[in-house]
Amino acid sequence: MYFLKSISDDVRSSQTVFKNHSKMKQHVLGALFGSIAAVLQSAGGFLPGVGYFISPFATAPILFCSILSLPLGIMSYILTNLLLLILQPSELIVFPFTTGLLGLGIGLAFTFFRKRLSIIVTGAVILTLGIISLLYIFQFPVLGPAVPNSFSFLTTIGIFVFAILYNWIWVGISLIIFKRIKKL
Questions:
Q1: How far is CA 107 from CA 146, 152, 155, in A?
Q2: By CB count within 10 A, which of 14, 85, 130, 145 is most buried?
């Protein structure tokens, strides 16, 4: 079955090759990915309308850094938050709990798990916890005014189902990219 198959060794081999690079190269790559994530996340504020379709791609740089090296992914995540504080402070509440947390969560899952299902579910749980934190703890209407700020089990289930589908897409994209990187 598709979900119970182990991920390929492309990710593991990329992690091994990445660890052989110097610390300076690793930090430069992390800083580059962090700045790309900040620009992509702030696109919603700089380009109203079309920018909201660009900002979900801020997950990709954090995800790839986290897959290559979890400490580097955390560094990129923190750097992106600091850059967003300067570039687009209004995005600073959304990124740490949704887009950035998703990249860290999937990277963490790639580090510890080998089965697709466990990677997808781990990322979905982390994303769901981030969205629920924004909705119910901070009372920030991240899903718009249609979703009430009071706790709803049905809303939570809906968020989790969405998170599973969204993570499935991101895991598939990242595996395709790592296969293509291996061919280079």
A1: 31, 29, 26
A2: 130
pLDDT per residue as tens digits for the range 67-104: 888 999 999 999 999 999 999 898 888 999 999 999 99
Residue 171 sits in a domain whose CATH number is 1.10.1760
* Contact partners, residue 171, CB within 8 Å, separation at least 6: 106, 116, 119, 120, 123
- 145 confidence band (pLDDT: 50, 70, 90): confident
Q: How far is CA 66 from the centre of its chain?
A: 9
The average confidence (pLDDT) of the chain is 89
111 lies in a domain? yes
Distances (CA, A) of 8 to 5, 52, 124, 182: 9, 33, 21, 11
Number of separate domains in the chain: 1
Contact at 8 Å (CB) between 107 and 70? yes
